[in-house]
Amino acid sequence: MAKSHNLIQLMLDSSSPGLRKNAKRAQAGNPPQWMAGIGQTISVVELQKYIMTSGLSEAQLSMARRALALLRTADVSGKGRVTAPLAGPGGNPFILEVEYVALKDTNHNPLKVRIPGQLDSLSDLYTPQFNEEQVYGRMDPIATYQGTGRKMDLAWESTIGSQAAQFGALFGDLIKMMYPVYQTRNYNQLGTGTMVAPPLLRFRLLNAADKNVGLIVSTLGGGGILGLVKSFSIGPWDTNTPGETNMAMQPTAKTPKGSILMPTGKVNLKFNITVMHQDGKVGWVWDDDGEGKVGVSFAQKHSYPYGYDTTLPLSDMEAYPSAPASSDGLTDSNTASDPALAALAAAGDAILD
After folding, report:
1. Distance of CA 55 to the CA centre of its chain
2. Domain boundaries 94-276, corresponding CATH code
């Protein structure tokens, strides 16, 4: 993951008089031309791209490359790095972790952002889908089950406070995760290019001790929920200034056009997610205890979907209305024990005759 650094501060602390002079000009709102298109915080990759595409003169390129060398050194030492805000007992007691599944570093660690805040609301929609066919002489449709979909609406609230620069960087990184991965290395190539991976994300809800608190959890793998983000929005921006109509803003960086401003109150993030069931079957499966007794259990564990145990006496359940090896939809033994099923079977036979 590319690390962002406070470039102006690095330049001010450098041993180069030229870099220090340039940094002071940028602080005063009159940056040199080679700094006109960059902000106060930037990563090595971002500065490299800027140098390649900005059309700078040789003298300007020389200064930009010296600044790039500072950033590379800072990548190793950690000096000047923009640190992520921390979760704690205050306004941001939990962490929403969002992982970009398609990208991993050389140690196979996934690309992820961790956003301190708290869960504002969570709506979970389950939609069993049937293909219904109406036939002559039958009051009810013939229904063929197709599948059960799951969609989740997640609203997250973060309190900005004095950490505007950190949250601004986090929100920017999260927005980047809404876009795909391309095959080409040439970022300014004309045309659409070849996409090699979609923006598939995994979500986790953690406490300040990095423990999964449930609700957004994979009950088989113990990780987070894999999902397709159908929509993502930031806002409204709550300035947390009762009685005032103007937004309370905090300067985070100096640019040629002035300060970049961020509200200091609360910010809402909203996700509409189509959940992907990645861990095998989702539903009831047959279970043989090895002694001839066949029962049922839920394939995603009893704790599906929120990580809590079940109230159902599943150990006492038996294969009903039919064992998986049976080809009949309703066996004689089952229909005999349930009058409703017997009547349903008789009605079906009458229609077929």
Report:
1. 36
2. 2.40.30.200
